[in-house]
Amino acid sequence: MENKQQLPNATLVLIFGIASIVTCFCYGILGLIFGIIALVIAKKSKEIYLANPELYIGYENLKAGRVCALIGTILSALYFLIIIAYFIFIGAAMMPWGEIMNQ
């Protein structure tokens, strides 16, 4: 049996990917941060794995973390856009349109 080592940052990517999904409804900011960090780390770890796949174990964790990070990033971005649209709508609704139009 060969001495294989754990793929660097595979568990971290999985944790950040899950955290991006869990925190996606915190106004979208935390989920975006966790998701983007996880995707960047996942890209680097995937390059390391593809250079020498026979040396590492834990690629499944990396793939799962990357998928979670993608889902969390997409949900966070959508929620962030909804929050921005909400504040624009509320701001437009609170404008004194009657005074503006009568001038």
Q: Indicate the structural class.
A: mainly alpha
Count the E strands: 2
Low-confidence regions = none
Main beta sheet: 2 strands, parallel
Q: Order of strands in the sheet with the most strands?
A: 1-2
Q: How many domain modules?
A: 1
**What's the mean pLDDT score?**
92
Concise synopsis of the structure shown:
With 103 residues, the chain is mainly α. The chain has one domain.
Structure description:
By secondary structure, the chain is mainly α. The protein has one domain (5-101). Helix content is 74%, strand content 4%. It has helices at residues 10-22, 29-51, 59-93, 97-101, and strands at 5-6, 56-57. The chain has a two-stranded parallel ribbon with strand order 1-2. Helix 1 packs antiparallel against helix 2 (29-51). The model has no long low-confidence stretch (mean pLDDT 92).
Give the topology, please.
Layout: E1 5-6, H1 10-22, H2 29-51, E2 56-57, H3 59-93, H4 97-101
Parallel strand pairs: 1-2
List the defining traits of the structure above:
4 helices, 74% helix, rod-shaped, mainly alpha, 103 residues
